[in-house]
Design goal:
It contains 8 helices and 11 strands. With about 290 residues, it is α+β, with helices and mostly antiparallel strands. Among the domains are: about 50 residues, Arc Repressor Mutant, subunit A, CATH 1.10.10.60; about 55 residues, Homeodomain-like (Arc Repressor Mutant, subunit A). It has a 5-stranded antiparallel beta sheet. Strands 1-10-5-8 form a 4-stranded antiparallel beta sheet. Strands 6-7 form a two-stranded antiparallel sheet. It is elongated and about 60 Å long. The chain starts with 18 loop residues before the first helix and ends in an 11-residue tail after the last strand. The structure holds a DNA duplex (21 and 21 nucleotides). It holds the Pfam family Myb_DNA-binding. This is Transcription factor MYB86. It is found in: Nucleus. Keywords: DNA-binding, Nucleus, Repeat, Transcription, Transcription regulation.
Length: about 290
Amino acid sequence: MGHHSCCNQQKVKRGLWSPEEDEKLIRYITTHGYGCWSEVPEKAGLQRCGKSCRLRWINYLRPDIRRGRFTPEEEKLIISLHGVVGNRWAHIASHLPGRTDNEIKNYWNSWIKKKIRKSSAPPKTTAYPPTHHPQINFPSNQLEFVNQNLMSTAIPSHRETLFSSPPPLFIFDRRNTLDGIQVRQHGDNLNTESIWNLNQHHQVQALAPSTSSFTGGMDSNTYLPPLIENMEDEGEMTLECLQRQPLELNEWVEYSQQISSFLFWDNINIQGEEEALPSTSSNMATSFPTSL
DNA sequence: AAATAGCTCAACCGCTCCACC
DNA sequence: TGGTGGAGCGGTTGAGCTATT
C-alpha cells in the first residue's frame, strides 16, 4: 500500500472524522485561518495529514458550505455546465455557491449510473409517439417548435421526472453527422428524444430560460448562442449574447467542434430552406455528452 | 427476519501544476 | 535549471445506509 508522501508520518489517522476531530479543526482554522495545510495537524493537535485536514475543511466544515439535496435549478446547471466543460468539477462547483466539487462529482456519477441503467432497460410503452409532434409546424421554409408547449401537452404532469419542472433540454450534437448537426430534444424523463438533422442551410435560434444562470438576469427574450469565450481566462466561462441574430448553422457546428453543448433552452427556432427531418429514438445510449 | 443488492457520499490516492530556492 | 514541497484536481474506493428479495 503506497501512502501519499504527506501521510507517511507515524500515527496518522485515516478514515471518517470524529466530532472531536472536527471541533479541533474548526477551532484552529477559525482562530488562526489557514495558510499552510501541512502545519495544521500539528498545530491543531490532530493525528491527520494536512491533506486530510484541507479536504475535511473544504468539503465539510467550512462555514459557507451548502448542505442538502440539489435544487432543480442546481441540477440543471450542473448538467448544462458538464455539457460545456466536461468533468471539470471544480470549475462547475465555482458556479454553484456553497457546493463542492466532490459533491457535484458524486451527484453526476450517480446520475449517470441511473441514466445508463435506464438506457439498457427495454423501451417504455408510455414514451410519447416518435412521429407525432402536433405543436411543430412545418411552414414552407421554417420549422419552429416551442419546448414549453411540447412539454405541457406531451408529458403527463404526474409522471416522475428527474427535474421538478419539465426538462427543456436540447442538445446540439455533431458527432453523428459529417457536415451537419443534430438537435436533440429530450422528453419523458430523458428516456426519449427527438432528433432534428440539420445542415448548413439551417439557422438556429435558442431562447434562454429566464431563470438560466447563464443569462445573469438578462432579458429572457435575448437569444443566446452558446459561444464560449475566455475559457482559460481565470477559469471563467462566459456566454456571449449575439443581439437576437439567428446563428448560421455552421456557427453552431464550429462551436460543437470539440464538445457537445448540453444546455437548457426554453425555445429553439430553426429556419431554413430545407425541412429539418425529425426522427426519434428511445435509446439513451446515443444521447450522452461525449465525455461519458 | 435475514441476506444481499444497490446507493450515497466522505475520504483517499495519484497525479499535475506552480512557486520557490 | 532542476529539485522540492504544497495546493488542488479528478478518479476511485468502501463504509454505512436503504431497499428489495
